Amino acid sequence: MSTLRIRRPDDWHLHLRDGAHLAAVLPHTAARFARALVMPNLKPPMTTTAALAGYRARILQALPEGMRFEPMMTLYLTDRTPPDEIRKARASGFVVGAKLYPAGATTHSDAGVTSIDNVWGALEAMAESGLVLQVHGEVTHPDVDVFDREREFIDRVLSRIVERVPALKVVFEHVTTAAAVDFVRGARPGVAATMTPQHLLMNRNAMFEGGIRPHHYCLPVLKRERDREVLVAAATGDDPRFFLGTDSAPHARHTKENACGCAGIFSAHAGIELYAEVFDAAGRLDRLEAFASERGADFYGVPRNQESITLVREEWTVPSGYPFGADELVPLRAGGKIAWKLVTG
Ligand code: NCD
Ligand code: ZN
């Protein structure tokens, strides 16, 4: 198979930033995806429906003429998110979830949740009103090894949430380990996971290949080859709980190539093509459409897209950088080749 026509996909985990940065990255996503769940970890974080309404309007304004794209929003949960704010978010119609960042877990998560015991009321309100919880699943205790943070989070936090609020829909975001896949497979209905291209394509060696590679650093950090294999099997398998979320997270080049480099990998320039490589290598191109365009929509309870996109098996070279406002960003696979290409126009 060298041409692949699939239902237009959605990206269920995306960082768009704001202002000139937003304008620079949005077209990459909108060229491929019909909708995306836009992460709220801006500075300051998007902790209210009113703030999200403004942000959503800026996203739509930044969309180039002739492009169609629907931003779906998620509220940034804090220790003090009032249940009333949850109800307001639901009533807005454009907020579909709330995001739990353990405080300090990742980029712009300082205002995140310091203890799960502070948010039970908000989680109950979410379950009642039908908002989906998106979870950055890593413990932040400095004693826990960085490669074990996701696994530890399952027992210490996630399993408690899933048990105590049985009607809450939960997405374990950007899963990276065999332990996370096992958890999701065995969990009650209403629990799912997103998967990024980087965690399906690379293992942790990619961060140290011939020297330190800041552009392969993201959170959760890349894991072992064994974990990657389990992730690929889940993505390309027939379990509807696993679906696409790129976690494309742009940072200016100088903030990544830095003595204290930021976490985040930009992949929106090839946000579907990179997954096509994964599914092709696994001999399961026939499952790409389910993973990219169906399971996520079904889980979130929105209609599947009716349009389609076409991909061809045709190698192209990724630019060494893309404009990023006054800065430049370095995309995943910069200067290298990608085996699948989006047919545009
Ligand atoms: C994300 C970012 O840069 O906003 N970084 C990342 O490494 N994935 C935050 C996140 O999703 O953890
Ligand atoms: Zn993210």
CATH class: Alpha Beta
Judging by the overall fold, what is the CATH architecture? Alpha-Beta Barrel
Number of helices: 11
Helix fraction bin: 25-40%
Class per helix and strand makeup: alpha/beta
Described by its quaternary structure, the protein is single chain
N-to-C order of helices and strands: EEHEHEHEHEHEHEHHEHHHEEEE
Shape: globular
What share of residues are in beta strands? Answer: 15-25%
Largest sheet: 8 strands, parallel
CATH T-level fold name: TIM Barrel
- What hetero molecules are bound to the protein chains? N-carbamoyl-L-aspartate, zinc ion
Radius of gyration: 19 Å
Description:
The protein has 345 residues and is of the alpha/beta class. It has one domain (3-344): TIM Barrel. It is 33% helix and 19% strand. The chain contains eleven helices and 13 strands. The strands form three sheets. Strands 2-3-4-5-6-7-8-9 form an eight-stranded parallel β-sheet, sandwiched between helices. Strand 2, helix 1 (19-30) and strand 3 (35-38) form a beta-alpha-beta unit. Helix 3 packs parallel to helix 4 (120-129). The protein binds N-carbamoyl-L-aspartate and zinc ion (ZN). Zinc ion binds next to loops.
